[in-house]
Amino acid sequence: MRDNDSATSGVPIALGLAGLGVLIYSFTFPATVYGLDGLNPYLIGVGRSAAAGALAAGVLLAVRAPRPRRDQLPGLAVVAAGVIFGFPVLTTLALDQGASSSHSAVVIGLLPAATAVCAVVRAGERPSLMFWVAALAGTACVTTFAVVRGAGHVSLADTLLFAALLAAAAGYAEGARLAREMAGWKVISWALVLAVPITVPVTLVLLATTSPVWSAKSTLGFAYLALFSAYLGFFAWYEGLARAGIARASQLQLSQPLLTIVWSGILLSEPIDAATALTAMGVLVCVALAQRTRVRTTPAARRPAPEKEKTPASWTRRSMSRLAGW
Questions:
Q1: Domains in the chain: boundaries
Q2: Helix (H, G, I), strand (E, B), or coil: what is residue 225?
Q3: pLDDT tens digits, residue range 164-205?
Q4: Helix axis angle, 87-96 to 156-178, nearest 10°
């Protein structure tokens, strides 16, 4: 009973961590719009990861973190491809193509459903039928909102956003799977560091060739993206996904478009109409229903118990215990 009670009590904490990650990410699009005030979109998309990678390298060195195992490197490569290159670059290009922050946020609202599918494929999770009903209902809400706001057509920006959400879904699910083996902050830190041989040289070239203008807005936006969106947000997000279950915790992101719309109205003076309010109520209901449904995890997908360190002292203690038993 104690183990079950402990597991149950840990779910709200895990969902709280995931919710904190969503809150941090909800400022990403407004911050990107700020960055575009004077910076090239590729510089924003790649440069934020380069800056975060330098910070991550310092953190890993400070704590003397052990290197990831060889079998963990392919997963880290997927994380890097999805959330370090794919999502930042594609969403920045979409915003540079003229998509508003609020419209982009609603299209990316399909991300929880895509993440849940990746959780089924890669992390061995088995959501219940009611979970899928709630998730699809939330997806329908944001899809309808996107179509109405987009005047019924799919633009180049929408195509870029769709590709971005697929990249993010793969990176989220793979990162959360790895967070069952190592701490979530280590997952994003090592992924960023492994990407440094690409992100840093590309950033230096872009700095030299794109004539960046570091206005107050662009500097503030870039700093937020590098520190929070590209790095610190993943500390909470990956831990929340790993502890609460990828499929379940990812549904909290259904509320992210609504938060982003609010911040876009406040920070960017983008309009908030009645359709936004109706979508907000519908999505919040779907989030609540999704959190109350059951998500099963296969034994292979559960977080493995940490191996006990094998030291001469521990070997001696085991030997003495055996002798005493004889």
A1: 2-325
A2: helix
A3: 999 999 999 899 889 889 999 999 999 999 999 999 999 999
A4: 160
